[in-house]
Amino acid sequence: MTIPFNPDRFWDSLDQMARIGATPDGGVKRLALSPEDDHARKLLRDWAIAAGCTVTVDRLGSMYCTYPGVEDTAPVAIGSHLDSVPTGGKYDGPYGVLLGLEVVRALHEAGRRTKTPIVVVNWTNEEGSRFSPAMSASGGAMGVITEAAVLAAPDNFDPSFTYADALAATGWAGTADPAKARDFAAYFEAHIEQGPILERDGIPIGIVTHCIGVEQWDIIVTGTDGHVGYPMPGRRDALAAASELILALERIAIETGGMATATRLTVQPDARGNIPSLVRVAGNIRHPEVDGNARMEVAFRAVVAEVTKRRGVAVDIRRVGGYPRVPFAPALLDALRRAADGAQLKRRDMPGPIPQDALHVGIVVPSALMFIPCHGGVSHHPSESISREWCAAGLATMGPAVIEAAGGLA
Amino acid sequence: MTIPFNPDRFWDSLDQMARIGATPDGGVKRLALSPEDDHARKLLRDWAIAAGCTVTVDRLGSMYCTYPGVEDTAPVAIGSHLDSVPTGGKYDGPYGVLLGLEVVRALHEAGRRTKTPIVVVNWTNEEGSRFSPAMSASGGAMGVITEAAVLAAPDNFDPSFTYADALAATGWAGTADPAKARDFAAYFEAHIEQGPILERDGIPIGIVTHCIGVEQWDIIVTGTDGHVGYPMPGRRDALAAASELILALERIAIETGGMATATRLTVQPDARGNIPSLVRVAGNIRHPEVDGNARMEVAFRAVVAEVTKRRGVAVDIRRVGGYPRVPFAPALLDALRRAADGAQLKRRDMPGPIPQDALHVGIVVPSALMFIPCHGGVSHHPSESISREWCAAGLATMGPAVIEAAGGLA
């Protein structure tokens, strides 16, 4: 037993939301707690109130749009984020928030309630572009990060200004306790895949069994400076050594079925006449298997030991961040699978290679994450796009699953 | 027939000169046309006048300390530079200038003259740290660069200030025509090796047969941006591709007996969450053989073609600078060899892997470059050092050769 969801209304709402912070290249720039984010939040608030919700805001600015249940028990939550990266697209974040909105709109339109309340959540600062770290409000809510640390984060574009300042300036400093979100009975999140697999294989629904663990490293290679006219034997070139390590990371990822990327690199002394003596590489490793990151690290450290000895350089690997591996709740994943099957939609279980707010929430609350495809796997880019069919498939899957988790229609 | 040179006076003068711009770590910071360089120039001028020279300055600030000959014919010149890199040592440059000074001091003390005049030269801005390019005054004098381009070069540390401004501010804007240096009958330059070979093999005198050709490239690798959670297959990671090219450069240099160095590297988008899409590498290649650089380039372009195809990236190699291969004058090199043999000093013919002012002068004027060892091959570093024995060996070799080239004692 379910209710008629309206995929066209969902699509149109995504379109309307994408006009806020729209960039000339077809993308979206809606940094957390910016004027554009404020505009987007007000639109969500207005839509939610019109759909019969009450809207509360916590001390970290996250919005909770609560559609009442027939019982005042622990709610089922569904959400994501409305903020974007500086060169973002239309769907990374809003897809999950507005899918939740469509669920309560459909209930409201049908004049129905579920047993428990349903809360549509807009987490603040998921992207982390403006305030580090990423997903800080969901992390603060779940106790992964302290509330004080979230609020004190400086604006990456204007360090004199903090997250707390931005909350105050935009009027989104709420009074609700973020920790109340730990009482959700369940949490659902829908998101574009941000990868190429679903589209490539013609599968509209990805059931994300777990968010994979992520390790962030700084790899510091110290060699010896010298003139570029110095003979090759006897050099201790930090950049040549770092190049070997970058290729080793890539090779180990391919061999073990993980992912590893050198994302940033700086050189000293950074002069045309000098052999590099100090290179700093930012490394990111992630693996779908439980012990995958540990295995990749063992393999990488073996390469480091060999390169260090052969090239006479020193290599220091410093862990600078990361995320734990977070499995999702089997019962909620089953609800999604049943709903997809009921809608005759192909589905596939898959790991979630990219952290989402569901990673933080899933540490504390039984949670489920679902993917729909995006064209070419492209995200964090103005050309990020989805089809109407994929958009509707996600709604047809998660909508019924949320209703079911909320105890069904009363 | 020669005159008694004074190696102790030479050594003491190097020591006195090194106090100007001395840094606490034992090095020297004496950027071109800085207050320290001004101080060093005045000391050279005073010493040269005391040694019977007349001092003229050209429009690019280069100093010519002329010790008259019995005939007013084309002079024999000997020189180098007094400027240093920001973290320089005591000998890179001053060794060659003050060796020339010791030659005229010895003549003056002995009351002797050579047939032709001898000119001790201090070329402005050899290092190029303050004003690009390096060796610009000798290049301007020889017509390799236009005088206007030398004068218009902005201060690399304060772009609102030019070479011409610095000349005016320090009072070293002379009136002599720099092109007059093209009339030198011969040019000699003594320099520390800036490499490890002579010390390692216990040879105090390097006879530099030629300055090797240098090619400077920007290597631009364009891949595709993506999230670091994107699977490995299908990535077009510009940094991984660049790492292969960096290692290829190194390997080709070793295999062909050349030198190749990736010195600088920048990444876009330079973010922990993104696969690098654009990497720019500064490459420097040099080879002692006539066609060495061309052979290295052919080998490198073959690797580029393979990597481009296999990784789906684009690679653009842009030549941004370099120096031609410049052979030195056989007769002058022979004079140096005879002098070394006469002083019972071991000597070795070798290529000059690092451009010096002699490279520019050698394009127009019959020239000779000679190396003495430096400890550990270290230069452009505060710990740059030489022994008293090496210092004296250079004087004992080049002193007589200059006298001979100047027609001998009159």
A few lines on this structure:
Two copies of one chain form a homodimer. With 410 residues, chain A is α+β, with helices and mostly antiparallel strands. Chain A has helices at 7-18, 35-50, 94-110, 136-142, 147-152, 163-170, 197-201, 238-256, 292-311, 330-342, 357-364, 388-405; strands at residues 54-57, 63-67, 76-80, 118-122, 154-155, 158-162, 186-192, 205-211, 213-222, 226-227, 259-268, 274-275, 278-287, 314-323, 326-327, 347-352, 367-372.
Provide structural commentary.
- Two copies of one chain form a homodimer.
- By secondary structure, chain A is an alpha+beta fold.
- Chain A has two domains: 7-211 and 325-405, Zn peptidases (Aminopeptidase, 3-Layer(aba) Sandwich); 213-323, Alpha-Beta Plaits.
- Helix content of chain A is 36%, strand content 24%.
- Chain A has twelve helices and 17 strands.
- Chain A has helices at residues 7-18, 35-50, 94-110, 136-142, 147-152, 163-170, 197-201, 238-256, 292-311, 330-342, 357-364, 388-405, and strands at 54-57, 63-67, 76-80, 118-122, 154-155, 158-162, 186-192, 205-211, 213-222, 226-227, 259-268, 274-275, 278-287, 314-323, 326-327, 347-352, 367-372.
- In chain A, strands 1, 2, 3, 4, 7, 8, 15, 16 and 17 form a nine-stranded mixed sheet that branches.
- In chain A, α3 crosses α12 (388-405) and α4 (136-142) runs parallel beside α11 (357-364).
- The N and C termini of chain A lie close together (10 Å).
- The mean pLDDT of chain A is 96.
- The interface between A and B is large, with 52 and 52 residues.
Topology of helices and strands:
The structure is a homodimer of 410-residue chains.
Chain A: H1 7-18, H2 35-50, E1 54-57, E2 63-67, E3 76-80, H3 94-110, E4 118-122, H4 136-142, H5 147-152, E5 154-155, E6 158-162, H6 163-170, E7 186-192, H7 197-201, E8 205-211, E9 213-222, E10 226-227, H8 238-256, E11 259-268, E12 274-275, E13 278-287, H9 292-311, E14 314-323, E15 326-327, H10 330-342, E16 347-352, H11 357-364, E17 367-372, H12 388-405
Parallel strand pairs in A: 3-4, 3-7, 7-17, 8-16
Antiparallel strand pairs in A: 1-2, 2-4, 5-6, 8-15, 8-17, 9-13, 9-14, 10-12, 11-13
